[in-house]
Amino acid sequence: MREVARYPVCPTCIAKPEPLNAEHFCVSCRTAFQNSFPLDEHGRCALCRSGLRGFDAAYSFGFYEGVLRHLVHLYKYGRIRTLARPLTVLLARALPREEAFDAVVPVPLFWRRRLQRGFNQAELLARGISQRTGIPMAKALRRLRATSVQAGLSNHLRRQNVSRAFAARGVDGKRILLIDDVMTTGATATACAIALKQAGAKRVSLLTVARVDRRLDGRRFPAGPNQVGRTIPNAE
What we know:
Blueprint: H1 11-14, E1 24-25, E2 32-33, H2 46-50, E3 57-63, H3 66-76, H4 84-94, E4 103-106, H5 111-117, H6 121-133, E5 141-143, H7 155-162, E6 166-168, E7 175-183, H8 187-198, E8 203-211
Parallel strand pairs: 3-8, 4-7, 7-8
Antiparallel strand pairs: 1-2, 5-6
C-alpha cells in the first residue's frame, strides 16, 4: 500500500482499466471492427493482408479512453514517472503467451523531445517488461530526425511524417517485442518495424498499454442485445 500511495491517483482508479473487448477484430493487428466485412477468411484486415502494417502482430491491454487514457496522460504529459510501474503491469497482462522474444525494444524519442520531457515513456515501460520477463532490453532503434506531433494528422500524413525517421542495428535474426505507450493508427510502429526488418529482425510484434478504438467515431461500442462482447486473446 505504501507503493500505491506514491501515485497521484487512488488504488481504485489504478485498478479500474478494463481489457480490450470487441466482437470483431483483426487476428494480426487486433484492430476492432463493427462487423466482419473488412476481414478475410483468416480474420485479417486489408492493411495486414497488404503488408502495410510493417509489424507482424500487435497487442494492447485496453482502449485509449476513460481512466486508462487519463493514466497514460498523467504518465506521459504530466511526467508522473511512478505510473510506469502500474502501466507495466497492464502491459504484462497483454503480453502474448504463445510468442517468444529475443529482445524488448522501446520506440525512441528524438533527443530534443526526450530532453524536454525528461524521460522516454516507452523506454521505462520496456525496462519494466524486461525485468518481469527476463527478456533483455535493447536500444536497437534510433530516431534520425525530429517529427511533427502525430495528433491531428490524417493517416496518410502520419505515415509520411514518420517515414524513414528510424534506423535500427543489432537485431539480425532476432524476434523483437516493440514497446510503446499508445497505438493510434500504427504509423509510428510501422516505421519502426520497417527499420527493424531492414536491419535483419526476424519478427516484430508491437505491445502497447492502450490503442485507439477506430470504430466509427472512435468510442467503444457495446455488444448488441443478443451478443456478448468478446475479449481479445492475450488481453486478460
